[in-house]
Design goal:
- With 642 residues, this protein is α/β, with parallel strands linked by helices.
- Helix content is 29%, strand content 14%.
- It is built from 14 helices and 18 strands.
- The strands form three sheets. An eight-stranded parallel barrel has the order 1-2-3-4-5-6-7-8, surrounded by four helices. Strands 11-12-13-14-15-16-17-18 form an eight-stranded mixed barrel. Strands 9-10 form a two-stranded antiparallel ribbon.
- Strand 4, helix 5 and strand 5 form a beta-alpha-beta unit.
- The radius of gyration is 30 Å and the shape is elongated.
Length: 642
């Protein structure tokens, strides 16, 4: 709904039970420039009304991606200062200035990959800008990221060439990137997403306003997030709270029933959104809404308003386009009494909803241009002293008498209990090893192709090289050496362009899906292919552990980024096998720094103590636990378990 500036609330998050909840906070969304210009009246008035939260919008210009305009900095600083003096909390709403900023106006062929749609460079720049905003205004810790992503006015295009939703992937990618950037600035920062619009036509071929309904948008966002988690192994959520804009359009909709279309949602239809969010995100790293295991995500009803008629009032100008049945701002539905009654019903309803933490009325004072919004608690006044409407008294009295508490019984929401699924007994799959398989102090050996003609020790554990000294080569005596049983295998690793021709088609597809430059995607696919080759060689033995041999004896790129991509491709391939094997790395501190730049991979480590710069059991080369050390000898390498 909103096209300029808006404002909401700092909220303390807690899991809500069906019988207890934090009191509802009531606030205002308005324009930072208006507020800073009238700060001496604006914030004392908010305080006198009992309003406690305010949201200022800042918009990112892709043409100046690292810039916050001096006028915006001055306005927000003035707002923050005046708000603090009045005991009002400020929140920042952050989203792109142009609807095509993150898409280049281009439709995807189909959203078959969670990193396919959108301009990756601009998405990273937008996230970096949100961090810059948080650093510029350190007193602010609440942020709404993105705004009405299901509307083409804010994210365009909405659809792929195939007619499926595209905006959810664009919005999801921007939200994930900004979430990480804002939390990196301060652990106190809270990220709300996504400023959900209350309605959409779900018609990719609509002549105008081709948009996505909120219920279907949440389904698309959840599907995207599941694919993103599967590909990237993300364990963090993408938002700390859901931000929605449940305007009734037309505003003559009956309050209790709201929209007749089950995919749209006004204030009286919020359970539709709760159900859609639960279905979309249940079982993912994203907490859900409601009073159930994995629930407790808070909701911000941010931006909601009922407009009043300004006919005959001085200072107003222009034409009210919504003064008809389509907009509902006409007749009895445009009176101050109707607005006051609607706001009172809304506060009573939301105060008894354990999921809602804050509600923000769109504007404290009407806009004088009738092409804008006249949903404020005060009428515009050209002399600088706005006059209160009936709704101002209603809201003030409600806050004073309730303190934001529910005046009736709570109406919590939980998903329907699933029907029990009866399945026939299935044999248990082989269990993947879950911990260090080596016994501290135990001695063992590692062998490979140079040891083909040696008689192997009959005691201690054995680690056998499956490759023949380089990737895409085979240890000719692997089966013979592994015949008596192995505690694991090791795999040679490396990077050189001449090996790229060995990339498998399956690994090339996985590499192409990475949100990285072309060379890095190819390196990832190469590592995947190296692991696939070695896995095939080792299949007869079915090893429970794979060690990646990372040392200078094999070729590597001068770019640590490419080298890390190779290793990540190998790890991801092996980690996707069933049952999942343990994965560790053999290297030394000097090799690891030179090859990967000191990558913190956090996998089990095996280190050669005879190498200069080598570590011991007490300290490895990365951030993982040291499981093995290698001593070496003239005939066969000797290893000890840590």
């Amino acid at each position: 709904m909103r096209k300029v500036v808006a404002l909401i609330a700092l909220v303390t998050f807690a899991l809500c039970a069906a019988t207890a909840r934090a009191n509802l906070s009531v606030g205002i969304n308005d324009d930072a420039g208006v507020e800073s210009a009238s700060a001496s009246w604006f914030f004392p008035t908010m305080r006198s009304e009992g309003l406690s939260v305010d949201t200022v919008t800042l918009r990112w210009d892709e043409g100046a991606p690292k810039t916050i305009s001096p006028s915006d900095v001055a306005a927000v600083n003035a707002v923050v200062s005046a708000a603090q003096a009045a005991g009002v909390t400020v929140e920042l709403d952050l989203y792109p200035l142009h609807s095509t900023a993150l898409t280049d106006g281009t439709r995807c062929r189909a959203a078959s990959s969670p990193l396919q749609c959108g301009d990756s460079v601009r998405i990273r720049r937008f996230a970096a800008w949100t961090a810059q905003v948080a650093q510029t205004f350190p007193a602010v810790h609440d942020f709404v990221v993105m705004n009405e992503c299901n509307q083409p006015y804010f994210v365009n295009p909405q659809w792929t060439l195939a007619g499926t939703n595209e905006s959810a992937e664009i919005c999801g990618r921007a939200l994930v990137a900004a979430y990480d950037a804002l939390h990196a600035v301060s652990a106190q920062n809270t990220v709300w997403g996504v400023g959900l619009s209350p309605r959409g036509n779900d018609d990719p071929n609509a002549a105008s306003n081709s948009s996505t309904s909120p219920v279907k948008f949440l389904a698309a966002l959840g599907a995207w997030f599941r694919a993103y988690v599967a590909q990237t192994h993300r364990t963090a959520p993408l938002m700390d709270g859901l931000d929605i804009h449940p305007y009734p359009v037309p505003q003559s909709l009956p309050f209790a029933t709201g929209y007749s279309n089950a995919n749209d949602a006004s204030v009286g239809n919020l359970p539709r959104l709760y159900a859609a969010f639960y279905s979309a995100f249940s079982g993912t790293p994203q907490p859900t809404i409601g009073q159930q295991t994995g629930g407790g995500l808070p909701v911000s009803v941010n931006e909601v308003g009922i407009q009043t008629s300004s006919a005959g009032l001085s200072g107003y100008h222009g034409v009210k386009l919504a003064a008809n049945a389509a907009g509902g701002v006409f007749g009895p539905y445009a009176t101050q009494a109707y607005q006051a009654q609607w706001y009172g019903q809304m506060l009573d309803l939301l105060a008894c909803d354990p999921n809602v933490r804050v509600v923000n009325i769109f504007k404290l004072v009407d806009e004088p241009d009738l092409g804008g919004w006249q949903s404020g608690l005060y009428q515009f006044s050209a002399n600088g002293t706005p006059a209160p409407k009936q709704s101002a008294q209603t809201v003030r009295s409600w806050i004073a008498s309730t303190g934001g508490a529910c005046r009736g019984s709570l109406h919590p929401w939980s998903p329907p209990s699933p029907k029990p699924v009866v399945t026939p007994p299935q044999p248990a799959p082989p269990a993947a090893p879950s911990g260090n398989p080596f016994t501290s102090g135990e001695r063992g050996w590692d062998v490979s192709w140079p040891n083909c003609f040696l008689t192997l020790p009959q005691t201690g554990f054995l680690v056998v090289g499956v490759t023949g000294g380089q990737p895409f080569t085979a240890n000719p005596c692997f089966r013979k050496e592994a015949a008596t049983g192995v505690a694991g295998v090791y795999v040679n690793t490396g990077y050189t362009k001449r090996w790229l021709e060995r990339t498998t088609r399956a690994c090339a597809n996985l590499g192409a899906a990475q949100d990285t430059p072309l060379a890095t995607r190819r390196a990832y696919a190469l590592g995947c292919s190296e692991a696939s080759y070695a896995f095939t060689l080792a299949t007869p033995v079915k090893p429970s552990m794979y060690w990646l041999d990372v040392e200078r004896s094999n070729p590597w790129s001068v770019s640590p980024t490419l080298n890390r991509a190779v290793l990540r491709g190998m790890v991801d391939f092996l980690a996707s096998r069933k049952p999942t094997p343990l994965i560790g790395v053999y290297s030394s501190p000097s090799w690891w720094r030179g090859i990967t730049g000191g990558w913190q991979l956090a996998l089990p480590e095996w280190t050669p103590t005879a190498v200069r710069g080598a570590a011991s059991c007490a300290q490895g080369f990365s951030t993982g636990p040291v499981w093995l050390t290698q001593g070496g000898s003239s005939r066969i390498d000797v290893d000890r378990a840590c």
